[in-house]
TrEMBL record:
UniProt xrefs under InterPro entries: ADH-like_C, ADH-like_N, ER, GroES-like_sf, NAD(P)-bd_dom_sf, QOR-like, Quin_OxRdtase/zeta-crystal_CS
CDD domains the UniProt entry points to: QOR2
GO MF annotations, alphabetized: mRNA 3'-UTR AU-rich region binding; NADPH binding; quinone reductase (NADPH) activity; zinc ion binding
Keyword set, alphabetical order: NADP, Oxidoreductase
Highest taxon of source: Bacteria
Signal sequence coordinates: none
GO cellular component: cytosol
Species name: Duganella flavida
Protein name, as recorded: Zinc-binding dehydrogenase
Every Enoyl reductase (ER) domain range: 2-303
SMART domains according to UniProt: PKS_ER
Lineage: Bacteria, Pseudomonadati, Pseudomonadota, Betaproteobacteria, Burkholderiales
Length: 313
């Protein structure tokens, strides 16, 4: 989508010349129909770039500002018009790569770790897909809060990544029974909090890995939708179960800015990092999707527009 094809910038909006674009499972869900969208639509929810134009009533950003955004459709483009209130100011010390890699997954990790059962010292947190984009951020955040972190991954290569980002213990769930391993590692206690973005391959066994009065949060379906369970299956260990979607945790500009501020603060303080797995040109978005959907990645996949904004970072 080129600038000349964009609609006019209206009051409260900003035109952002995009440099780097974050690739997320949400893009795949929309492309495949798991999250149906009216057609035609432009994929992408997350990007970083430079403000090129602002509409009436916009005062907190101006032309030339470096910004990022998440949860705003149409990011797979050279430029995008977004509500100005959704823009996140990028400090000069953060690159466009960091700006595109961190907002959506960073804010996802923020609500998952804070808004259901915030862990602390003495808690055990089991994080599935611990080497992925959200998973690696969750590992770092849970450890920053003092929890003992167990990472669950699908390959030995991903196990190395999970350890590198801070997991105390790592389970390769394709080779080990992760519920049994979790119980062994915790001497029968189990995980106080399980965060699961994998679903079909992991969800039912979570009930065998969870501690008494533990909490399970499911926020994705990387391996497909989870097999349904009876609510009564939660009773034997008094388990609570939640589902989350980032859009419900960005209900106001204030909430978005608060979460974004916490994420950027973690990055600037050095305890929160997002590894970039690979950067594709925008024209190779299909290849990026194949890698991510096939679960062949660790860290973050990005697209680059090759625009002037991209080269000015």
């Amino acid at each position: 989508m080129r600038v000349r094809e964009l609609k006019r910038v209206e009051a409260g909006e900003a035109l952002v010349r995009i440099a780097k674009i974050g690739v997320n499972f949400a893009d795949i869900y929309r492309r495949t129909g798991f999250d149906p969208q009216p057609l035609p639509f432009i994929p992408g929810l997350e990007a970083a770039g430079m403000v090129e134009e602002v509409g009436a009533g916009v005062h907190h950003v101006k032309r030339g500002d470096r910004v990022a955004f998440g949860r705003q459709p149409g990011a797979y483009a050279e430029a995008c018009i977004v509500p100005a209130g959704s823009l996140i100011a990028l400090p000069d010390t953060l690159s466009y790569e960091q700006g595109a890699a961190i907002p959506l997954q960073g804010m996802t990790a923020h609500y998952l770790i804070h808004d259901f059962r915030k862990p602390g010292p003495g808690d055990v947190v089991l994080i599935h897909a611990a080497a992925g984009g959200v998973g690696s951020l969750l590992v770092q955040w849970a450890r920053h809060l003092g929890a003992h972190v167990i990472g669950s991954v699908s390959t030995l290569q991903k196990a190395q990544v999970a350890r590198r980002v801070g997991a105390h213990d790592v389970i390769v769930y394709t080779e080990q029974n992760f519920a049994e391993e979790t119980m062994r590692l915790t001497k029968g206690h189990g995980a106080d909090l399980i965060i699961d973005g994998v679903a079909k391959s992991t969800f039912n066994a979570n009930l065998d890995a969870i501690a008494v009065r533990g909490h399970i949060v499911i926020f994705g379906a990387a391996s497909g939708p989870a097999v349904p369970i009876s609510p009564n299956a939660l009773m034997p260990r008094s388990v609570s179960l939640s589902g989350g979607d980032l859009q419900h945790f960005l209900q106001s500009t204030e909430e978005l800015q608060r979460r974004a501020h916490d994420v950027i603060t973690g990055v600037l303080e050095g305890w929160l990092t997002q590894e970039i797995f690979q950067i594709f040109p925008l024209s190779k978005a299909a290849e990026a999707h194949r890698l991510l959907q096939g679960r062949h990645t660790t860290g973050k996949l990005l697209l680059s527009t090759g625009t002037a904004a991209a080269s000015s970072d």
